Amino acid sequence: MKLSVAPISGSHGADAIVAYYREAASSPHVDRGYVGELYCPKRLIPRRAFEQAMDILEDAGKEAVFSTLALPAGEADYDAAAPYVERAQAVEINNFGFVPWIRENFPGKTMQAGPICNIYSRDDLEIVRDWGCSGASLHIDLMPETVLDLCGSGIVPAEVFVHGRPALAFSWRCYSARFADRPASACGHVCREQDGLVFRNLEGEDGFVVDGPAVLSGQVVSTAEQLQGYVQAGAAFGRLALEPGEILHVAATYATLLRGDITVQRAKQDLDGLTDGPVRYGPVARRRLP
Amino acid sequence: MTKKIQLRAPGGTLATLRTAIDAGADGVFTGLKSLSNIRNFPGINFSVDELREGLDYAHERGKEVYVAVNAFPQGGLVEGAFRDIETAVSLGADSLIIADLALLRFVRDNFPGTPVQVSVQAGAGTARMINLLKDEFGIKGVVLPRILSMDEVEAVRRATDVEIETFVFGLLCINYEPNCTMSCYLTGVPNQTFGACSPAELIEFDESGDRLDMRLDGYLMNSFTADEVRTYPTPCKGRYREERSGRVTYPFQSPSSLQTMTMLPRFVEAGVDALKIEGRQRGKTYVREAVSVLREAIDSYYADPDGFVVRPQWEARLAALFEGGDFTTTAYGEKA
User: Fold this and answer.
1) Percentage helix, strand, coil, to 5, in chain B?
2) Chain B contact for A121, CB < 8 A?
3) Average pLDDT of the residues in A129-157
4) A181 inside 8 A of chain B by CB
5) B95-98/B64-69 β-pairing
6) Under a CB-based contact definition with an 8 Å cutoff, are residues B179 and A170 in contact?
7) Of chain A's two ends, which shows fewer C-beta atoms within 10 Å, N or C?
8) In sequence order, what are the residues at sequence separation of 6 or more whose Cβ sits closer than 8 angstroms to the Cβ of residue B91?
9) Which of chain B's residues have a Cβ under 8 Å away from the Cβ of A201?
10) Which chain B residue's Cα is nearest to A290?
11) Distance separating alpha carbons of residues B193 and B206, to the nearest angstrom
């Protein structure tokens, strides 16, 4: 299993974006970097930074994949994606509307189905393969047995979620602007000032983190315990959704675990030490109703 | 004038299906008692015999019934969803409501010509995605996500010729529906597969002193005093404390529901084909009132489009269906 780094989350200036991908590029354990913004089209504005990020990754021998928006609102959002799609080695589709758009405007461009795509079965996987996707990043809503089944299906190489704060939801609303009592249309990039709003329930338990229109998990989630199973099932990539400054150490820990040089228990101890706040071990989807 | 906009209503049970039709709905959406249906709540949905009876009742009155097979089946549940599609088609459902690609392909390959509406669960909110589904699977219509502005609805209308249905009244899903896993994060139960978010089996209401605590699988989502509006028990409608400021707030959605009667002319002018009332979990009173008010409003508009006004009594009747909560036109108005 190879390791990939998810797109930088949150709102950042050009320097921070470049620094994040420079960090990913410097890790010998990261093979692929996803570059882009899934939820807020306003965050795609520092174009040169995203293009530079792809340069940095490729110069370091990594694969640079552009991740599309999850909800393009109109033609302007497709147009905004065009220079990145043209530049990228491959494109991660996070809305099926990009499939015909890429076929039409960038024939032959390598496509992968992103974690926003609703792929729940082998049949679904076959369909996106037939649409031209040569890989798929699996949704966190999948039960462990489904993940193993899809990884082992051989339909297309599959990527599994391994570590980080997964996006649990996203909205037409900008929750960051809402918290600041601003309309989304005049948000003033308030999400950059807030740097993630942490919400706990009224008993003080971890809840959710707000990042613009996205809702992230309150706790960092790790599937370290499932990793060997994923490898045995044939998962091609493990996805790390990391914060700036933690890529090197977290990727190294998982790489060491994948090589079998440390136990899962030891890896968990290391990850606990590397992470701000408690780590929740185990897949997000893990049980059926009684 | 073009074809009159249709009014489609929820029919969680045979009784509410009949009520909806009697109150003036053009069509009723429902589902089988099955995991293939995303509103797999206890106490609602149809057995095969009930669905047959419901179809007869509707067809005898010139109305339609749409059967939702709109979960995302995984882990061996795909075959069961295929069987439910066969059942619905064999009984003469007027349309299927589907979200999952595999199920769309199954209908295309096995029941060509069967009308299919793409469920709101699919999140098909762009013309490019809708047209892809049309080209690949021959869909007849799409239920648009409740996250589009009216301008975006109009843009979709201009760019596709499939039938467009929009929600106009009821509870809101504030997040993009096919990807909301807030409930799954708290419970571990994948909500797109096992019957929507916040499964009833895992909801608890604890009364202590003058407070009512609302929990999902033990996790406190909200706590109400006696005089506060009770919200629907889902994580997105919960109340939380922001860590740095200490502010307690509804960060995702305040207690409010969708009510868009003032926008009725815009829906019609935009070329929307059908208006949908949310609420298969709702009882007869809700369905009767919501359908009859919206029926009156639609008929009033068509009788005199230029003179259409929302009557205060319509708003009062709809307001009575939600205890104390506010109404919003949600994204149709302005993206907040």
Assistant:
1) 40, 20, 40
2) yes
3) 97
4) no
5) parallel
6) yes
7) C
8) B48, B51, B52, B55
9) 219-221, 238, 240-241
10) B201
11) 28
Cβ pair B234, B222 in contact under 8 A: no
**In a domain? residue B52:** yes
Residue where a domain terminates, one of B203, B225, B249 = B249
Residues from chain B that touch A179, judged by Cβ atoms under 8 A, are 242, 249, 251
Q: What is the ipTM of this complex?
A: 0.96
Give strand pairing partners of A64: A33
| Architecture label for domain A2-166+218-281 | Alpha-Beta Barrel (3.20)
**Interchain contact, B252 vs A173, CB within 8 Å:** yes
Please judge whether A284 and B195 are an interchain contact, meaning their C-beta atoms are less than 8 angstroms apart: no
Contact list in A for residue B224 (CB cut-off 8 A) is none
Q: Is B16 part of a structural domain of the chain? A: yes
**What's the CA gap between B120 and B167, in Å, rounded?**
9
Contacts of A210 in chain B (CB under 8 A): 251
A61 vs chain B: nearest CA distance in angstroms?
33
Phi-psi region of B321 (alpha: psi -120 to 50; beta: other; left: phi over 0): alpha
Based on the fold, state whether residues B51 and B110 are members of the same structural domain. Answer: yes
Question: Is there a contact between A215 and B191 if contact means CB atoms under 8 Å apart?
Answer: no
Question: Are B228 and A202 within 8 A, CB to CB?
Answer: no
pLDDT < 70 stretches in chain B: 1-2, 323-325, 330, 334-336
Percentage of chain B exceeding pLDDT 70: 97
Residue A253 token pair: 């820990």
Q: Which two tokens stand for residue A17?
A: 């974006």
